[in-house]
Amino acid sequence: MTGDSGARAAGKSSEHLVVDGQSVAFEHGQTIAAALLAADRTSWRTTRTGRPRGIFCGIGVCFDCLVTTNGRRVRACLEPARPGDVVTTGPVSTDVTESPRESLRESPREVPHEPAVRTGPALPTRCDAVVVGAGPAGLTAANAMAEHGLSVVLLDVGERPGGQYYRHCVGGGSGAAASPRFRTLRAELDRHVVAGRVDYRPRHQVWTLERTTPPIPAPAAAPPADPVWTVHAVAEGPEPSPVQVLAPAVVVATGGYDRQLPFPGWDLPGVVAAGGAQALLKGSGVALGGPGGPGGRVVVAGSGPFLLPVATGLAQAGAEVAGVYEASRARDYLRHARTLARQPGRFGEAAGYARDLARHRVPYRTGHAVVAAHGDERLTGVTVARLDGQRRPIPGSERRVECGTLAVGYGFTPQLDLLVEVGCDVSTGTGGSTAVLVDADQATTCAGLYSAGETTGVGGAALALAEGELAGLAVVAATGRPVEEQRKAGLTRRKDSLRAFADVLDAVHPLPVGWLDDLPDETVLCRCEEVPVGAVREAVRDLGAGDPRSAKLLTRTGMGWCQGRTCAAATAALVGRLTGSPPDGTDAAALARRPVAQPVPLGVLASLADLPPTHVMDSDEPSGGTAR
Q: Which residue ranges does the record assign to the BFD-like [2Fe-2S]-binding domain (predicted)?
């Protein structure tokens, strides 16, 4: 991801929505969360214990930002703001153990919306391949398959293709979505959509994969007897509707999200994920701590090279960045000098960020971490401490830094929900993250299921582009069509080089699990269920919990709205420290495993039986639209 200086104040807009009876201005293309933040509303609900909540992950993972819009509960960070929207905030709990508050069929909206853009024929659809995710990996996979004549359905939760990396800026801007590489990818996608080879469906949440026997003859891409995958999704909009797509091959390219470690006060409004801070800046033009965003200085902390573009982007947008605090040390890179030397472009990129930070007089400290956040209703400051060789805070080194925003993240963790549930094997990377196992062709251990990008191990956009294309070519080859071996060999070499570099970054920036030992018992571990660290310690010490899943069953850790996405890594690490058994990839995967990967309205489930007969898509049939 890259920083972007295209932030704009929401006050320049002539569009308005209504929040708790008051008119709030926003720019076209902003989310409801961005509109609230631009109006200096950092919190808009409370938990069952009365703790304030606002935006945290910024990309729909954590559910902290729930609001009611036109009578429907939505995640404010994902929901586009529209003129006339009626938004209600307030002290609503998100305890998943409460009785259902909505009828099977959702209540009518107070304000009608335009429906989600849906291209192609009525679903269910039968095609040659489905791609889940329209980020760098998903785009190259879809384009590669369509280029060779396959019919492809591309499903993505976003309103536009590009994912988190190629995020579109409000009012334009100079972000990655304006890069020549993305313009080429998008032009290819548009061409395939117009030709009918790609059926692109934005604002579609895939909630599960199911391996089934084909109910009808398959297209020419696969023998009729081949088993197929059924991809279940929800088409978002004022009236969410069920979607089913059947194909013998599926490429999962769902990306990743910020990896977090708990510390006292990390659930305060004003503490946001580093990726969430950049998503707001790039996608909605809201710079936390800058023009058009909530006031106060900004601290950026955690570990990994991603902190640099986040801090640089905020500073360029006018925010006062009080400091960047990196848990790792610069000398940690010296052990991997040979591998690093093979990627000279990355050094130039890092040097550019360093120059930008120096120009804006932003301090950069290695071997430091934020160990506490302070405030009542919102963040007012943080405590920073030096870390020892085990990445534990050094007593006596603490100092307070006043700020209104903390952007924090310890790298990224892959989004594996769909893959884990169907039984794909996973592994643990050098830095502790769980990733799906794939072979040289990006095939998982489940036949017909491929994966590319961050799901195979966090490695950045360049690696995702190579893996996505390889996955697409592998699906093409599986149909018996010829594939250019020289092209495949070049992609493989590039992938191997970039993966080696990513493994170095993973090793240099591991999850600093040592500091979990010193956390106060009252520190919140699971944000959704508000389970403290002490409860998990008690479960292991007194109740016999010997693994993360047992701790989950005894404490409800990971059973809330986010289903363990936010706390799984920290919980697995904490239990591992307490039991003396370092967690492997299966521990975190088991903790976060769920049969339904995304929220599904009950009305959508009830209407599955009403779906029309399966439609067979072929490359000669136009899908009815272009990528937006």
A: 525-575
Q: Domain holding 426: CATH number?
A: 3.50.50.60
CATH number of domain containing 551: 1.10.10.1100
Note whether 310 and 252 are same-domain residues: no
Residues 266 and 403 occupy one common structural domain: yes
Q: With 90 as the cut, is the pLDDT of residue 482 above it? A: yes
Q: Are 27 and 8 in contact (CB under 8 A)?
A: yes
pLDDT tens by residue, 513-545: 888 899 999 999 999 999 999 999 999 999 999
Q: Which pLDDT tens digit goes with each residue over 277-325?
A: 999 999 999 999 987 778 789 999 999 999 999 999 999 999 999 999 9
Q: Which residues make Cβ contacts (< 8 Å) with residue 354, sequence separation at least 6?
A: 308, 364
- 278 lies in the same domain as 198: no
CATH number of the domain residue 50 falls in: 3.10.20.440
| Residue 202, domain extent | 125-213+226-256+413-507
Confirm if 272 and 284 have CB atoms less than 8 A apart.
no
Candidates 270, 302, 347, 350; CA nearest to 3 is 350
CA-CA distance, 618 to 394, in Å (whole number)? 63
Domain boundary among 463, 487, 507: 507
| pLDDT for the residue 619 | 47
Q: Are residues 61 and 193 in the same domain?
A: no
Cα gap 589→570, rounded to integer Å: 12
d(CA 69, CA 76): 9
- Binned at pLDDT 50, 70 and 90, residue 212 comes out as confident
Instruction: Return the pLDDT at 345.
Output: 83
- DSSP3 helix / strand / coil % (the chain, rounded to 5): 30, 20, 45
In a shared domain, residues 495 and 525: no
Predicted confidence (pLDDT) per residue in 567-594, tens digit: 998 999 999 999 998 777 666 666 767 7
Dihedral sign for Cα 199, 130, 502, 488, please.
negative
Domain count, the chain: 4
